[in-house]
Design goal:
The structure is a homodimer of 198-residue chains.
Chain A: H1 11-29, H2 36-43, H3 47-51, H4 57-68, H5 81-99, H6 101-111, H7 115-144, H8 154-171, H9 176-193
Helix pairs in contact in A: 1-2, 1-4, 4-6, 5-7, 5-8, 5-9, 6-8, 7-8, 8-9
Chain A binds a DNA duplex (30 and 30 nucleotides) through residues 6-11, 14, 35-38, 40, 44-49, 51-52, 55.
Chain lengths: 198, 198
Amino acid sequence: MERKATSRRRGEALEQAILDAVWDEFREVGFSKLTMEGVAKRAGTSKPVLYRRWSSPVELMIACAASRVPKAESVPDTGTLRGDTIALLTLAHERMRIVGQTAMLSMLAQVSVDPEARKVLIEGIVNNLSKALSGTVYARAIARGELAEEHLTERLARLPIDLMRNEFILFGHVDAGAIEEMLDQVILPALRARGATV
Amino acid sequence: MERKATSRRRGEALEQAILDAVWDEFREVGFSKLTMEGVAKRAGTSKPVLYRRWSSPVELMIACAASRVPKAESVPDTGTLRGDTIALLTLAHERMRIVGQTAMLSMLAQVSVDPEARKVLIEGIVNNLSKALSGTVYARAIARGELAEEHLTERLARLPIDLMRNEFILFGHVDAGAIEEMLDQVILPALRARGATV
DNA sequence: ATCCGCAAGATACGGTCCGTATCTTGATTG
DNA sequence: CAATCAAGATACGGACCGTATCTTGCGGAT
C-alpha cells in the first residue's frame, strides 16, 4: 500500500508493518509468488530495507509466522488426561492454523536444505511445542496417578503433536472427529499400554 | 549434458532422459534452484520440449519422483504382526528415501495450493501406499488371529505410514531404532488395545 | 536549538529465469 | 519417397533477483 508522504518508520514499527505486509501478500498471491519486491511495495518500503533483515522470501515467511504464533500458552487443566490431551491437540491445531498448511510446508521444505534453519525450527518450535505442552499435560496426569512416569518416553511425549502435524500437513485442517480418533485409537491406548493405572 | 550431434530422441526415450536430468539437477542444485532452463540444458533439449509436457518445475519434480518409485511391491510374510510391520515400515522408508525429504515436502507444499494435484498425490500415493501395504499386513494378522478385524479402523490402518511420514518429513531419515520405537511404543499397543488376542 | 550519524527509502543496474512464439530440421508414417 | 509432426534452436518481453549508490528524514548527542 502507499503511505503518508512525511513519516519515516523505524525499528519495531517498521518491522511489524513489513511482517503484516508479508502476511497479506502471502494470503493474496500464495507463497510461491511471494517476492521481496511485492512485499516491499505493499509495505510501502523498498527491497534494501528487507534485505537488511532477511535474506530471502522463506526467511521472511518464517519470521512472519513466528510473529503470529502466540509466545507461550498453557494447556487448561480439565481434570482428566483425556480432557487435557484434547485441549492440547486443540491448542496445537490452533497454532498450526495460524501459520497455515502451505506456509508450514514451505518452511519445512526450506529447512530440509538448510541445516542452520533446521535447528531453529525443529528445536525452537517443534520441540518447544511438544515439550512445553505435553510436559504440562503429562506431569498432571502422573500427579493424578493416571500415568506411570517411568513409561513415559520421548516418543510418547511427542506423539500427540506428531499425529496432529501429520494430519494438518496432509489435509490442512483437522476436525474434532479426527482429534477424538487420534486420541482414543492411538494416543491413550499407547500411553495406557505402558503401565498406566487407569 | 551435451549430446550427439545427430540423433533426435522422441517419445519415451526423450521423456526418460528428461526425468533423469531432473533428478541429477535436483541433487546438484536443490529444488529451489531447479529451473526449466537448467533441466533442458542438462537433458540436451530445450524449454519448449519441457513445457509441452509439464507446466512447472514442481510438475516436473512430481513426474520425476513418480517415475522413480517402484510400481507395486508386497510386504514379505515374516510370520508375525510385529515382523510384518517392521517390514512394512522399512519398505515405506525405502520409498520415501527414493523420493527424498526435500522433494516430498516441495510436492506437498505445491499440493497444498493445488486441489487438482492434491487428489493425485493424496489418493494416488498416500492412500495407495497405506492401504496396499497395511492391508496386506493386517489381513495376514487377522488370519493368524493376532488381530481382531472389527477393531481395525481406517486410522489404525494409516498409522504406520503416518508415523513414518512424520518422522521422515521432520528429520529426513529414520533409523532402525526409531522404527522399533514407533512399533513397540505406539503401533502395537494401539492395535492390541482394541481387542487383539495377542 | 543545532549538528551528526544512521538507517529509511528511492532508484538503477546486470543478471537469471520465466513462458511463449517462431523457425528449421530430423524422424516417423504410409 | 513424400508428407507430417514433434524435436530442437533461438529470440523475445517481462518479472524478479540481489546489490550499489544516493538522498533524506529521524533521533540522539552536545
